[in-house]
Design goal:
The chain is an alpha/beta fold. The protein contains nine helices and seven strands, in the order E-H-E-H-E-H-E-H-E-H-H-E-H-H-E-H. The longest helix is centred in the middle third of the chain and has 21 residues. The radius of gyration is 16 Å and the shape is globular.
Amino acid sequence: MAFDKNRVSVVIPAFEEEKTIASMVSGCRKYSSEIIVAVGKKSRDKTFAKAQNAGAIVFRDDGNGMGSGLMEGIRKTTKEIVVLIDADASHDPNDIPKLIEPIINGKADLVIASRMKGGSDELSGDFSQLMRNIGGALIMLTINYRWNVRLTDCVNAFRAIRRSTVLDLGLKGKSFDIEQEMVMKALKKKYRVSEIASHEYARKYGNSTINLLKIGWVFVYRLIIDLF
């Protein structure tokens, strides 16, 4: 089936990513006719203006966290398929066609861009990255055992999902745990979840806002409350 960008919305959560947001909007525009950028309420750089100048629909989130802003952006979409992608240029928009292909072909409802299959510049690094990788692997092992699946990466932000599916999940996560929650609730409701290989690049500017010591417990809590 031919690729149709008019069936695809892209939602990009962004917090002080003024150096990369315009290029991400431009890269996604080749594959989507509706690009929505959720700028963090506390973001103080030029991310909002640069996203707007690049032609995206832009709004400031409610300040309650990335997950909250992401859901607000999803609710603003109007297309059949929603692609979620980070603003820091760690994901390649050119992977969007193969990301949505299983959905277009009726083989999946949620497709994750797996770093375990495509590689990641952050799979090796400092102690914090090592702990994130170990924690993610343990969570993934638990999810696979619980639902008898063979997924490799439940927390990568780059993914595609049917709009009807994501709105049916009743997602509550306010933080980065929304990505894990999305996978678990999709499996719980018997939606089809699959993966494609996609390489994750190291962010070009700045540092990640994810502090494992501060929010690591959120992923464990999410695992416990949504496992059954």
